[in-house]
């Protein structure tokens, strides 16, 4: 949706995909400050070169110099929506200036610019979806003072996102020592069949709070973080030992060499055998 009365709002789009489509969602850059919310399905996307798995109500905030998309260009089954804002000034390491339409104070815009400079993933942040719907309804109905209301809602959206980013930063600082302890425990016994409940109990959290904190801190769910550790440690074993791939797979906690191979290829693009042959001399 594009409305000439809102030149600073260059995109307001809903996308629902019912079949897997190839070459539909390649890694790309946004035209401005893009705020994207998953509404249905599960998506595995690369955000600035890092893989993320996204679920309904997860929110992404991407600046125009940052990249987003599926590494193979695949658009998975599901639905998401986004809006893209064109601030007056939005450049790397430059203060954010939204423009005359915004009522946010200049100092607040500077703070927002600093927090928005890195790509952000906000897990389970449904208020974004609610505000996007309100913006769309205001534009469709075009009732009295709708332009003013739309601009207020965009400001409200940015305030909510920046506050959430600030809370995430504080949580990362507070969670840092706990996370380091968890990381050490996992690496010390990768063969163990870890569950989320067991990990959460060890560090003193309930499963839900633990999952949210790990995802906010690392960008991964606890089990996906564990898988990444297992693969990175497997690569070290492949480089420093002559152990068979089956032995490495079992030591890293994979229940079979086939499971290890499929997971390894998904994360690296190679099978373990191909990786060992082409990357290790």
Shape: elongated
Rounded mean pLDDT is: 89
- The domain count comes to 2
Low-confidence stretches: none
What's the CATH class label of the largest domain? Mainly Beta
- Estimated radius of gyration: 22 Å
Which range best describes the helical content: under 10%, 10-25%, 25-40%, 40-55%, 55-70% or over 70%? 40-55%
SS summary, helix count: 9
Percent in strands: 15-25%
Per the CATH scheme, the topology name of the largest domain is Jelly Rolls
By CATH, the architecture of the largest domain is named: Sandwich
Category by helix and strand content: alpha+beta
Taken in chain order, the helices and strands follow as EEEEEEEEHEHHHHHHHH
Distance from N terminus to C terminus (CA atoms, Å) equals: 54 Å
Largest sheet: 5 strands, antiparallel
Overall strand count: 9
User: How are strands sequenced across the largest beta sheet?
Assistant: 1-8-3-6-9
Q: Could you walk me through the main structural features you see in this protein, from its secondary elements to its overall organization?
A:
The protein has 2 domains: 162 residues, Jelly Rolls, CATH 2.60.120; 93 residues, Arc Repressor Mutant, subunit A (Orthogonal Bundle), CATH 1.10.10. It starts with 8 loop residues before the first strand and ends with a helix. Helix content is 48%, strand content 17%. Strand 4 and strand 5 form a beta hairpin. The strands form 2 sheets. It has a 5-stranded antiparallel beta sheet, with helices on one face. It is of the alpha+beta class and 281 residues long. The chain contains 9 helices and 9 strands.
């Amino acid at each position: 949706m594009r409305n000439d009365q809102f030149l600073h709002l260059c995109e307001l789009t809903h996308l629902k995909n019912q079949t897997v489509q190839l070459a539909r969602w390649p890694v790309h850059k946004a035209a401005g400050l893009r705020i994207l919310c998953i509404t249905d399905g599960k998506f595995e996307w690369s955000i600035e070169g890092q893989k993320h798995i996204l679920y309904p109500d997860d929110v992404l905030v991407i600046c125009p110099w940052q990249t987003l998309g599926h590494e193979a260009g695949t658009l998975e089954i599901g639905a998401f929506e986004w809006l893209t804002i064109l601030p007056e000034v939005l450049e790397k390491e430059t203060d954010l200036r939204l423009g005359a339409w915004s009522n946010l104070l200049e100092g607040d815009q500077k703070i927002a610019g600093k927090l928005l400079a890195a790509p952000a993933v906000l897990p389970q942040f449904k208020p974004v979806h609610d505000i996007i719907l309100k913006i769309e309804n205001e534009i469709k109905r075009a009732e009295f003072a709708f332009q003013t209301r739309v601009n207020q809602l965009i400001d409200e959206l940015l305030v909510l996102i920046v506050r959430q980013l600030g809370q995430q930063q504080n949580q990362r600082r507070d969670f840092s020592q706990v996370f380091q302890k968890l990381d050490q425990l996992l690496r010390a016994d990768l063969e163990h069949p870890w569950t989320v409940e067991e990990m959460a109990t060890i560090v003193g959290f309930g499963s839900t709070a633990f999952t949210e904190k790990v995802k906010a801190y690392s960008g991964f769910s606890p089990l996906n973080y564990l898988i990444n550790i297992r693969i990175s440690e497997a690569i070290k074993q492949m480089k420093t030992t002559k152990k068979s791939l089956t032995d490495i797979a079992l030591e890293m906690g994979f229940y079979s060499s086939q499971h290890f191979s499929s997971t390894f290829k998904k994360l690296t693009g190679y099978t373990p055998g191909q990786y060992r042959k082409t990357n290790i001399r």
